[in-house]
Each structure stands twice: as C-alpha cells, then as structure tokens.
Amino acid sequence: MAIDKRLIELIPTLPLFVNKEDINEATLLEEDLHLYGYQARSFILKYADEFGINLKGFRFNQYFSRDIPVYRVFAKITRIFKSKKNKLTLGDLQAAIEYKKLNENVLKDIKEKKVSNAPHKKLHTHSSLVIKAEDIIIYILVGITVFIFLAWVTFAMT
User: 129-151: per-residue pLDDT in tens?
Assistant: First the structure.
C-alpha cells in the first residue's frame, strides 16, 4: 500500500536527516517523525479534515506523549521513561481512510488485516543525530538555567 502524498504533505516538520523519500507505511508517527503533544493533535486533526475522517472514539493520549519540554529533556537525558503508548503508523492512517473513521475498533481491525510489505526500519542511522531545532533550543535553555543557578549558589555562598 502506497502512502498518499497528501498524507505525507501534512507532516509539519521532519527531523534532521530524514527525507520524505524514506517515509513508508511502517513509519511510526511518534518515534520516527517525532510527533507528540500539540503537534501530533494538530497533525491528526488536519488529517481528519483532509480525508473526511471521523475521529469519534480516537484517544490521542493512547498514541502520543505530552509535549512538555522539561519532561522530554529529562526523558532524553535519563532514558528511564520508555513509551508505553500504542504505536501508530502512516500505514494505519492510510488504511483508516477507507473506513472514513479512526478509533480503537478501526485500528484493531487494521492491525488484524495488516500484512505489511514494508518492515519498520528507523528513518535514520544514528538516533543521536536526529535532533529537531526545538530540542536544541531546549538543551541551550536548560544549560543556561543550570549555569545561572550555579552562579547564584556560588555568589550566595560567598
């Protein structure tokens, strides 16, 4: 099953080192495309508008993590928090277009019928290289905050 080009065009931003040509039906929305929080919700709503999909019964929080910068930085640094979210692929969204709705029952049906010719492969070779610009800004801000705090503590102790 080929992914509709309109679906690919809805992706707001691609992580560094990811090309649109590498995207296939096994591409994971959260892990590969880094869609979470508000950006994921916005993407799904645009998808529903573009393809006339009914989202009644779709639970965003079962598929996407919250977009809290401090949480993301902490999770990336510690790697303690593993996502326990259900996996949602572009292939799932493509298949849901035929149903004209996206909810738990439709996704369960899609997963049962799914015979993917495109095995999931990471869209990048080095996960440490896949950094979005907003992540860089977050790292810089955290670094500045830590520096200011340490300077304040040092100044307060003298």
Answer: 455 666 777 788 889 999 999 99
